[in-house]
Amino acid sequence: MGIPILANSLLERPWQTGIEFLFVLVVAWFFYRPFRKSEEARTYFGVMLGLLVIAVLAEISGLTVIQIVVRYVGLFFVVTLIVAYQPEIRRTMGEIANKGIFFFSGNRADFLDQLEEAVRQLAAKRFGALIAIERRVDLRSALETGISIDARFTPELILTIFHPRTALHDGGIILRDGRVRGAGCVFPLTQKELTDRALGLRHRAAIGITEESDAMAISVSEETGQICLSHKGIIERNLEVEEMKKRLADLLQTRDEELSEEGVSVAEDEKPKRSQDNATLASTATQRLT
Fold first, then answer.
1. How far apart are CA 157 and CA 15, in angstroms?
2. What pTM, to 2 d.p., does this model score?
3. Most confidently predicted of 65-79, 95-109, 225-239
4. Tell me: the pLDDT tens digits for 100-111?
5. Which residue, 231, 226, 172, is CA-closest to 199?
6. Spans of all domains in the chain
7. Which pairs with CB-CB distance under 8 Å and at least 24 residues apart come from 60-65?
């Protein structure tokens, strides 16, 4: 019944039906948005898409029993998804309530201002730090080596994490969507030959995480307070905090423009190689980052 009704609706009032269809797509996108980086969630959505195809074919063929089965199985998957991903749904609803449906660049500016202040204080206090900013490529493999956190990014939190007397100060933190997702994380070390002996494990880890993903990493030396910015396996050294902020803003803007031009949501050419095995991560976890 549903398919003939939709066909008649398209013929009789195409504009209204088009608007309704667009509305459904927008709602579906905002429902999918918080889960798009989760492999399990993508599997859920894939199964539900398959069920939708089966339901349409069953509707066309008049297979009533299959329609009933698919309807209840689909309901089960929807309920399971909501139960399993309550935190993500709650956080997304909060973002929409606080920021509106569309996220303006002002939110990025606020994040960069807070990041600038955090890095300024880290460098002034000579607190060694390693901060990875996740972009399109999921950093779950690195996140699993540390402590999972879901906290709003603030300079005070960053200073607490990287204080030399805290348990998590030797690892790196992962930022995603302006929030701290993990701390004490072990990043893969670059295998490049670095001639400068001043670049210790912390800087090698910053380069390594950007070689295996499209993330950007900020490293602060605990010996000199030197600020470095790494991206695409390249490290920019001896940056002033204002210069670091400007470079980071430029890189983020350039990346967004590249993705917009290509029309893709994930940069395939920068997907993680994931060549580091668990043994390598375990062996580096015990080393003190310098």
1. 51
2. 0.57
3. 225-239
4. 444 334 478 888
5. 226
6. 2-98, 105-285
7. 60/3
Confidence class of residue 287 from pLDDT cuts 50, 70 and 90?
Answer: very low
* Cβ neighbours for 100, distance < 8 A, ≥ 6 positions apart: none
- pLDDT tens for 185-236 read 999 998 887 777 667 888 999 999 999 888 999 999 988 889 999 998 899 9
What is the third-level CATH fold of 105-285?
YojJ-like (1 (3.40.1700)
Residue type, position 236, single letter: E
CA angle 151, 155, 156 (to 5 degrees): 80
